[in-house]
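ingest -> validate -> predict -> emit
validate: passed (alphabet ok, no gaps, 261 aa)
predict: started
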Amino acid sequence: MSGYNVGTNSLKLEREGPILWCTLDRPHARNALTPAMYFGIKRAVRLVNAEPELRALILTGTGDVFAPGGDLGGRYEPGDEHVPRGLTHETLPFIAIRESMAPVISAVNGICQAGGLLIAMMSDIAVVSDKATFRVPELLRGIIDATYAATLPAHIGMARARDLLLSARSIDAQEAERIGLISRVVPHDRLRVEALKAACEVLRTAPEARAHVKRMLNQQYAPIDYETMFASLAHGTEVREGMTAFMEKRQPNWIPEDLPA
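emit:
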């Protein structure tokens, strides 16, 4: 272990030379991201940007799951530091990952969807196991995801973004690479090696010039309407129904009863 602390035992930190590995490790909940985990990832990004001995961050998961998105119950685990305002714009790590001066690599080992896919998308490079799968399921739960609406079209184009957002269908690693959602698919047993290789490749580039190029790339994204998103999360009836239906393992009430199978 590295001795670093980001406020939750569900994120395991390990240093390998100047590179910090951050492993999502909440197997009993399939790595569903708690508020403390989201904020812990943001703290890990800040850590690699602040500590002189650290130069890059690699994010990965355990078992066959990278990250399925947020824990719909908003639960905490024993030992978690509580995030004062819960799941808010200040808690989420996506902008911190996107704007990090230090390289951030995602080593996607398996199921990657919702907030987990946003983490991979906002990373400098996502190195993906050939066993990984991807999905944008927010609308199945009545969630307005402003980050996806602002960023997904820049990655894969408007037509494909509409397809993935509005259908919430699952795609495999090969289709994700073909449409430009991610850039590197590798054999599953080489994931760690290839992710480390990607981090080392980026670290060979000049950091100040790299930061300017990243800033220019990030200008391609549309503004993110967090006001609408978080107002809906706090007060929206569809969100409550979607989460309740998920917990009760039933279909939400907006699905027509006579919908063809």
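The two ends are 49 Å apart (CA to CA).
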